[in-house]
Amino acid sequence: MHRPRHAHLPRDGGEPVSLRFEDVNVGDELPERSNRVDRAQLVMYAGASGDFNPIHWNEEFARMVGLPGVISHGMFTMALVTRALTDWLGDAEPIRKVSVQFRKEVRPDETVVARGRVEEKDPDTRTVRVSLWAELEREGETIKPIKNGEAIVELP
Amino acid sequence: MPLNSSLIGKEYPGVTYEVGREKIREFAAAVGETAAIFHDPEAAKQAGHPEQVAPPTFPTVLHLKSGPQVIADPELGLNYALVVHGTQEFEYRRPVYAGDILTATPRIADIQAKGPHEFLTIETTMTAAGGEVVCIARATLISRGTAASQ
Predict the structure, then answer these.
(1) Architecture of domain B5-19+55-143
(2) Second-level CATH architecture of A21-37+72-154
(3) Where are the domains of chain A?
(4) Is the predicted pLDDT of residue A4 greater than 90, yes or no?
């Protein structure tokens, strides 16, 4: 199987970076990634993913089915979480597995902060287990639209 | 009405999808994945990939095409108005690349009652030409309040 093991290219076109197994320590936090969700993003995501459920773009329909208004696609919030992972890794290739639990809806104009932490390292397989979650502030409380997320990554 | 748990293990016809460069760019832009490997085939090749790379949750595009036949299966008895997406998992053997022609084959992996709700797990296996497994997606849908009363 093809498994690139070379340096990865950073987004700014600077020197290639590659996260190595030895560079990672249990307890390391992933750089957090914030995204203020706006309606245009939900429409873009609907088109890009093919999920045209009207609860994500039609205010009237969303209220009719008992929601507070339109809500984000859960998979869009998941994509924000995996973006924190790809930003940290500099690539998508090392990811062997990623899973999340959807716990709360995300509403337009809320700011989702995607976070993660290194929980475990296995030197035999050069794999790292990372916990993942998403947070936002609503009415003075921190809530987690995504909880108990986890990724297994295999590093060079 | 509870779901028809005799359908555990039922496999549905595969849906074939050709992964295009522009579709990957569109998806990457929608989710804010700005790294060059998701946009530029040459940058991806310089980073050691055979082609432009799809972001990790891109396979959702495929299971949104293969999943409706499961959800709408009259034998299953799922009322989609009662459904919320509970969990999502992707297991990767390799990244999805531009130019991949993938077949997404869904299967009912599990149906379980927990309290008043039922948890339906749909496992979708995505294979490339020659049967190479690229990604396995597992989605758990919560069917609210449909479990048989105790």
Answers:
(1) Roll (3.10)
(2) Roll (3.10)
(3) 21-37+72-154
(4) no
Tell if the CB–CB gap between A87 and B35 is shorter than 8 Å. Answer: yes
- How many whole angstroms separate alpha carbon B61 and alpha carbon B65? 7
- A positions 87-106 inside 8 Å of B (CB): 87, 90-93, 95-102
B17-39 confidence digits (pLDDT tens): 999 999 999 999 999 999 999 99
Paired with A117 in beta bridges are A29, A131
Q: What is the pTM of this model?
A: 0.93
Under 8 Å between Cβ of B108 and B7: yes
Mutation choice for A interface testing from B25, B88, B141 by most A CBs within 10 A: B88
